[in-house]
Amino acid sequence: MPFSLNRRRVGAIVGISLFAFLLVLGGAFVGFQAGIRMPKTILVKGVTGIDNREVSADFGTFWQAWETIEDLHLKDKDVNAQEKVYGAISGLVGSLEDPYSDFFKPSDSKQFQDDIRGSFGGIGAELGIRKNQLLIIAPLKNTPASKAGLKAGDKILRVNSTSTDGISIDDAVRMIRGKEGTSLTLTIFRDSWERPKDIKIVREQITVPTLDFEMKEGDIGYLHLYSFNRNAGSLFYQAMVEASTQGARGLILDLRNNPGGYLEAAVNLAGWFLPRGTLVVSEEGREGVMDQLRANGNAALADFPVVVLINQGSASASEILAGALRDSRKVKLIGEQSFGKGTVQQLTDLRDGSSLKLTIAHWVLPSGAILEGKGLMPDIEVKKTDEDEEKKRDPQLDKAIEVLKQEMKKAYDGRIFR
């Protein structure tokens, strides 16, 4: 990539008498002082090939560091110049302090894209970073993570004795994924524990579940949606046909431990609950609103009594759907604060086969609320403890049934059902 260089020396001209004095102190001292007083400074301006934008930066310190490494580091000869460039780009992305942005050198880029397209062995948990701490967003149903007892909000301190301090999401995923049948040990800390615990997990082929549906007493349909995958729309339709056949007069939409998935699936499901054209979510970049996604469905449930369950494992697309239903229909959210994952990432291929994954926008709810880092606060907060889990109690679902019955009474007051 062509660019113009402007080299200049910084510092005063050394006089004859001063130069002679420095010679007395020794050549090494002269070189040391000269390096401090007269560093190379390179100003890069008007870099071509970047949409004609002007770039102004001082690369003097960078080149000083480069030369010092070449001159002094014990193993410098074992690292080629291109690897140093990749390291510098990784540092550049790291300066953004965004755990969802990353740089992949060519070999890692190929592996990352193979993982997206193909199958893999893993533990079946969505990972996230909050306050620089790697944690479980949600363990998926019937996966090694859920069978091992991992819960939303669990902090992962170490993976196979390697600290996760400062780790990126993509590096964490690469460490935890692996060949089916192999094992790994996670050091986990939960807020209700006194000390961390080591949990050994055997990797399996991961199949992401979609939903379960059943009828509850009192003509209540209960739908637990585990993920917004490509099958979510058709399976939701089948569940609603069953709900209608069995005479459901209200619906509990359970989005607990739903880490998200395809945004389009969430917007399509919103079309069941909201009138056509209703704003579901806006995509907002640094220049302002980039896109607005609106309900475009049959609105068959637009007047149907609904409550939504959320917890720490509700993230991304599930937060968008829950937030849109509350903003536009005043649907009550019950449970615990959601995770707060509301950004958009874009993968860009670079010319040598490496790639950049960068956050380019965030999601904004119809109310104007930003999800990232904040999540959704429930209208009715109900905690679910470890003791509840052990005794198979679900106080959050119990409260949802109670609230939905009240909503149904208001909606159907005076109407007779046979």
Would you write up a description of this structure?
The chain is α+β, with helices and mostly antiparallel strands and 418 residues long. The protein folds into three domains: 4-79, no CATH class; 119-205, PDZ domain (Pdz3 Domain); 211-412, 2-enoyl-CoA Hydratase, Chain A, domain 1, CATH 3.90.226.10. The chain is 32% helix and 27% strand. It has helices at residues 16-25, 27-37, 60-72, 81-94, 106-117, 144-147, 169-176, 232-245, 263-273, 317-329, 386-390, 395-412, and strands at residues 4-9, 40-45, 57-58, 102-104, 121-122, 125-130, 133-139, 155-159, 162-163, 183-189, 197-202, 204-205, 211-216, 220-225, 250-254, 279-285, 288-294, 306-310, 332-335, 343-349, 355-364, 380-381. The strands form six sheets. The chain has a six-stranded mixed sheet with strand order 13-14-15-18-19-22, with helices on both faces. The longest helix has 18 residues, at 395-412. It is globular, with a radius of gyration of 28 Å.
